[in-house]
Amino acid sequence: MMLGAGLGFLGCLALGAIVLKAFSGPSIESVCSDGQSCNAAGVGYAQASNATDDDRAMAARLFQRGCELGHAPACNNLGLAHEGGVGVPRDYGLAMLEFERACSGGFAEGCSNQGTLYEHGLGVPVNLGDAQRAYSQACRRGSALGCSNLGVLYAEGRGVSADGATAQRLFAEACRAGSQVGCENLFQPEH
């Protein structure tokens, strides 16, 4: 009798664990198998119109997995999650590390996001020279936002010598690449 009750109790615990796992959401491995699919699934979770905190946390885990699998856009998205405290605690230091991984992986927006952290001193001391280098790298790789942000540095003479012609060229490049901000900067009279 005692043995039967013991096995029944263990059986109930095992069944409870299976039920709990089924209701706690899918495993990362069941959602994606490579960096690109993990990133895409993460974007889906993060951008769902009815996304919950659990969905945003799942998105961050998917971005982490995608980044671990070498997908630079996933590293960038994980950096954005850390920067904004979305699905993970806000941590500018971790955001910078993830943006660096994205940038070194060839993803231009990661470079641009690094520049923003340097420019505004988020998680690192303000360093306009590093911001300029990051924005330049982003712009060379095709980031419209990187070109626009670099143009602002030149227009305002922040970390570089003021150069209206260079600023206008960068704003035009950003505008052609689809940056609304670049277009607005291009047509502002003070630039």
Written description of the protein model:
With 191 residues, the protein is mainly alpha-helical. It has 11 helices and no strands. Helix 3 runs parallel beside helix 5, helix 7 runs antiparallel to helix 8 (128-140) and helix 10 runs antiparallel to helix 11. The model is unreliable at 1-24 (pLDDT under 50).
Biggest sheet overview:
none
The helix content, as a percent range, equals: over 70%
Described by the principal axes of the CA atoms, the overall outline is elongated
| Count of distinct strands | 0
Mean pLDDT across the residues is 87
Low-pLDDT segments, ≥5 res: 1-24
Question: In DSSP terms, counting alpha (H) and pi (I) runs of 4 or more, how many helices?
Answer: 11
Give the N-to-C terminal Cα separation: 87 Å
Radius of gyration: 23 Å
Strand composition percent? under 5%
| Broad structural category | mainly alpha
Helix and strand element order: HHHHHHHHHHH
